[in-house]
Structure formats: structure tokens, C-alpha cells
From TrEMBL:
The keyword GTP-binding applies. GO terms for biological process: ribosome disassembly; translation. Gene3D superfamilies: P-loop containing nucleotide triphosphate hydrolases, Translation factors. SUPFAM superfamilies: P-loop containing nucleoside triphosphate hydrolases, Translation proteins. This is TetW. Residues 1-164 form the Tr-type G domain. Keywords: GTP-binding, Nucleotide-binding, Protein biosynthesis.
Amino acid sequence: DFLAEVYRSLAVLDGAILVISAKDGVQAQTRILFHALRKMNIPTVIFINKIDQAGVDLQSVVQSVRDKLSADIIIKQTVSLSPEIVLEENTDIEAWDAVIENNDKLLEKYIAGEPISREKLVREEQRRVQDASLFPVYYGSAKKGLGIQPLMDAVTGLFQPIGEQGSAALCGSVFKVEYTDCGQRRVYLRLYSGTLRLRDTVALAGREKLKITEMRIPSKGEIVRTDTAYPGEIVI
């Protein structure tokens, strides 16, 4: 049941951030989620969280990621934990090994000692992340806000949302249905195209028709009422 719900929910994502505790490393649940993401070809960024906790061994955590999840990772930052935590962009060319070695043209240049532009490296990184064959690794502490901005920048640059198709035919995917204590059905929908409006009547997979009597969307950490939903949005 857990796996079935995971697959239904993951199916509506443009990309995922897989969070791993720097203290606990890769757990069984982490492996289940990661392999589900790979099976569904969902672009994934790995975020090693809680680096501010005492006694963390980041090298060990990264090695466990390589051994238990995938060797196709690219470490995006260097980390200094003492005397204070400092995160910096990883500018070492060796950090790009996973990108270079899987592209014949880049590999030829690298072996020949020819310079490779950052633009070409970034473009190849983006392509492979979108193919779910490369997984950037970022560090931070969500509790303290460390490393969050670089992570958000990566999500913005690497994940490609669906195009705006507001004038196209209405199309969406229901990934969850639940009932309130009052017996009211609550449907979770990812809208792919078209515009959904309050009081619209829509067909569900060619079977029953459903009249929209109430709509809510996630907004800034809250669930708020709305009269209109657009492509790319999660609608309740």
C-alpha cells in the first residue's frame, strides 16, 4: 500500500529533492524512494541535511550514497564544518567527472587536456539530470537555513515544469482521494493543461462526472481557496 501511494504521488512531480540526514545516512526508506524515482525517470537532487549536528561524517554519507543509491552523482559544494560551517561552490574540475565520463566529446577534450567551457558542462549536467541519470548533491541544514538558497537555485535551473497550456483541453491526473470526517470526498489533482474553474463539471476518465463545488491550492505553505486553477498546479 505504501509503495502504491508513493508511485501515485511521484507521478505528478516535475522533480524531487531526496533528503538524507547527515547523521543517519542512507536508510532503507531512502533506498525505496530513490529507486521509485529512478524507475519513473523523475529528475532528482539529493540534499544532505543536518550537517550542523555534532559528529557527522560527510565523506561517509557521500560514500553510502554512491554504494547504496548511485555512483552517478556530482558534488556541488565544498564544506568546512569547523570552526563554523562554510559552504562554497565546488569549482574543482574533478567534481565534473560523472558528467564528463559519460559524454564522448567532453571525455575526448578532457583526455587531450583541452579546456572545457563551464557552459558545456552545465548544459550536459542539465540534460542528464532531466534524463534522471545524474544526481547533484547539495549540503545544508534546513533548520538553520544553511544551503537552502543554492538548493532552490538548483531546483529552478534543473527542473523543467510543463509548458503553459491554459487554452488547451482540460487534462489532469488524480493521485490521491480521501474523505473528511464529514464524509466529504477530497480529490488531489495535478493539472497538466486547460483551466479549471469553480462550478465546472468535469469528466473523470470518461466515466462519472464531477461538479467542482470547492477548490483549494497550496500557496506559501498554506492551503488556500481559489476560483481558478492553471496548468502545473496541484488542486484539491
